[in-house]
Amino acid sequence: MNVQQRIGGSSSLSPAGKAYTEALAQYITNEKIQDLIVWTSQMEQTISTAANINAPKEQWKALNGIHAGIFEGLTFREVAENYSEEFAARGRSKYYYRYPGGE
After folding, report:
1. CA-to-CA distance for 62 and 4, rounded, in angstroms?
2. Least confident of 9-23, 68-82, 83-97
3. Do residues 50 and 17 lie in contact, with contact meaning Cβ atoms separated by under 8 Å?
4. Strand 38-40 to strand 57-59: parallel, antiparallel, or no bridges (unpaired)?
5. How does the average pLDDT of the chain come out, rounded?
6. Domain residue spans of the chain
7. What is the dihedral of CA 10, 11, 12, 15, to 10 degrees?
8. How far apart are CA 5 and CA 101, in angstroms?
9. What does the alpha-carbon distance between residue 99 and residue 83 come to, in Å, rounded to a whole number?
């Protein structure tokens, strides 16, 4: 979910997200972690989050968010209003729930 509260997709960081990345990079620098390798998904926001960290980076598709199928780009409110049965099913079992047309 992004600052527009939309499900899925890859988005740029908000100003608060950008400030967080700077603080995170400084924290990691201060920790002096030996042989650190940073794993990110292939999504823009995770790549941007790791960009300021002074360490090798690897992008892993397995870390990408799941595809929300027909709900990609909708808000949870829109899903609740227009797909009430699916919204309830997801609420009962988020771990096992599969988005229609998605994962």
Report:
1. 25
2. 9-23
3. no
4. parallel
5. 93
6. 14-64, 66-103
7. -130
8. 20
9. 11
* 6-46 per-position pLDDT tens digit: 888 777 888 999 999 999 999 999 999 999 999 999 999 99
Nearest to 48 by CA among 24, 28, 72, 31: 24
Residue closest to 45 by CA, chosen among 22, 14, 13, 23 = 13
Place of tokens 């909708």: 74
In degrees and rounded to multiples of 5, residue 75 shows phi and psi of: -90, 160
Q: Is 63 helix (H, G, I), strand (E, B) or coil?
A: helix
Please state, in angstroms and rounded to a whole number, the distance separating the CA atoms of residues 41 and 80: 28
So what's the pLDDT on residue 12? 84
* Mean pLDDT to the nearest integer, 81-93: 96
